[in-house]
Amino acid sequence: MIKIGIIGITGFTGEELLKILLKHKNVKISVLQGRTSSEVKPLKQIYPNLSQIDINCEPLDIKGLSDKCDVVFLALPHRISFEIVPEIIKAGKKVIDLSADFRLNDGQIYEKWYGSKHTATHLLTEAVYGLPEIYREKIKKAKLIANPGCYPTSVILACAPAMKKNIVESSSLIVDSKSGISGAGRKAAEEYFQKEHPNFRAYNIGGIHRHIPEIEQELSKVVGEKVVLTFTPHIIPIERGMLSTIYLDLKKKISTADIISLYSEFYKNEPFVRVLKEGELPSTKNVVNTNFCEIGLKVDDRINRLIVISAIDNLIKGASGQAVQNMNIMFNLGEEEGLK
């Protein structure tokens, strides 16, 4: 049995991790810790619906965590993980970090977008970006996984096949993404439902959203040249689910059927990516509470533009489910274990 530790269980991603891992036949949840030094609380006091596991949530204690775990999940806000990951790695434990702290390869870029000086830049080159469909072989050998963001997961999976085959322009991507309110975190979600619901709005437009450098970094690696994009995120009046529509200019004439064939071949061995048939479009209803990503494709022949639509559950394939998928790969388990 793989012994699991989780730091930060009070957010949406921490709760989803617990739900998934409780169904996983190859793991034992050994340690749960909060984000700060606080009192011990029984898990059932925090989540009455998870009362089947008799374990306490303890104050933050890295040494105690490392002594009892094989792998540690960090479900923490940004700007906290880089302070504690070095000590966990030094103790010889694997880490899967769900924050943005190790996703960007350059500490200066991190500081620009997240407003804090990164204190563990020596680990940025060691961290593996945890998108299995692109980096599976590196994930198998990794000690530190930087679990991707939800928006980047939906966009990168939607764009990678076309960009890898070099059939689209890399300097003119337009991304329109819509997320359920849970993507903003538990506190923001509570405020939304109290003050706004059922409002539907854009936010952080005009190139200021923090996921932009993550998406550009990873797509630039896929295509082998600098990728830039326009990214507009929206909040929609549902709890969970994410749908991204991406517009890419084609370099030559190509049919929708041929694009679908290209994508189907690219993802033919991927257990959690579904490329839809011509005329079918993804929807959040089909992926909520699953680790799947649905992808639909259409060529606008009039202006020779490829439209790609992807749908995921932002809390599962966009966060906790993908984290467990990464753990399964790291420990040579069945990739679908706990996620079916």
Which terms would index this structure?
seven-stranded mixed β-sheet; single chain; alpha/beta; 340 residues; eight-stranded mixed β-sheet
Care to give the gist of this entry?
The chain has helices spanning 12-21, 43-46, 62-68, 81-90, 107-114, 132-141, 150-164, 186-195, 212-223, 256-266, 316-330, and strands at residues 2-7, 27-33, 41-42, 56-58, 71-74, 94-97, 128-129, 144-146, 173-180, 201-202, 229-236, 242-249, 273-275, 293-300, 305-312. It has 340 residues and is of the alpha/beta class.
Please explain how this structure is put together:
There is one protein chain. The strands form 2 sheets. An 8-stranded mixed sheet has the order 3-4-2-1-5-6-8-7, with helices on both faces. The protein has a 7-stranded mixed sheet with strand order 10-11-9-12-15-14-13. The longest helix is centred in the middle third of the chain and has 15 residues, at 150-164. The mean pLDDT is 94. 33% of the residues lie in helices and 22% in strands. With 340 residues, it is α/β, with parallel strands linked by helices. α1 (12-21) packs across α11, α6 packs parallel to α11 (316-330) and α7 (150-164) runs parallel beside α9 (212-223). It starts with a strand and ends in a 10-residue tail after the last helix. α6 links the parallel β7 (128-129) and β8 (144-146). The protein contains 11 helices and 15 strands.
